[in-house]
């Protein structure tokens, strides 16, 4: 009976030259993903657009799933600035809503790319792997920072996971044409207020 090959973990860029190539690959994937989506985009086209050998591309990203989860990870990193803002009178739940709305707006600027990243994230959730684990942990940390949580306990992690899943469903509804962007933002604010307000804002002094 033939052996089934184990999934290979992506390589990490170490030198500055490798990091430059890595960033070029992510930029190329973002461009082509926005044009063609996950299914129609070809890895060979990404390598050509990025100016790297196909072997180099596969060394860092063994699959399109790995590639688009990495693109999503880059989007998460950009949210840290929004999450770093000190909550005003509206509180921590509103701060989380602001972060999620900012993330949603950025993703929805390029709907095909957003769909590709969400599809990849779904697949990666089943497969696990370093890139997904790191991206997921980074996103949760952004939300915990917005909540003003330093040392998270189990309930904090569950609350973050629930609001993330709610936001994800809202995004899918927009991409599928079920609701518009204004409705989506209202839904995110309502969900954050109902889910997070009682734990993180009630009794808070401004």
Helix-strand blueprint:
Blueprint: H1 16-40, H2 43-50, H3 54-60, H4 64-77, H5 80-83, H6 92-108, H7 111-127, H8 130-146, H9 154-175, H10 181-200
Care to describe what's here?
The structure is a single chain. By secondary structure, the protein is mainly alpha-helical. It folds into 2 domains: 16-61, Homeodomain-like (Arc Repressor Mutant, subunit A); 69-200, Tetracycline Repressor, domain 2 (Orthogonal Bundle). Helices cover 73% and strands 0% of the residues. It has 10 helices and no strands. The protein has helices at 16-40, 43-50, 54-60, 64-77, 80-83, 92-108, 111-127, 130-146, 154-175, 181-200. The longest helix has 25 residues, at 16-40. The protein is globular, with a radius of gyration of 18 Å. The relative contact order is 0.12.
Feature tags:
single chain; 206 residues; Arc Repressor Mutant, subunit A; Tetracycline Repressor, domain 2; 2 domains; 10 helices; 73% helix; globular; disordered N terminus
What would a concise description of this structure say?
It is built from ten helices and no strands. It has 206 residues and is mainly alpha-helical. The longest helix is centred in the N-terminal third of the chain and has 25 residues, at 16-40.
CATH fold group of the largest domain: Tetracycline Repressor, domain 2
User: How helix-rich are the residues, as a percent range?
Assistant: over 70%
By DSSP (H or I, 4+ residues per run), the number of helices equals 10
Domain unit count: 2
Molecular shape: globular
Global Rg: 18 Å
Q: Biggest β-sheet: count, sense, barrel?
A: none
**CATH level 1 name of the largest domain:** Mainly Alpha
Low-confidence stretches: 1-6
Q: Strand fraction band?
A: under 5%
Determine the structural class based on helices, strands and strand pairing: mainly alpha
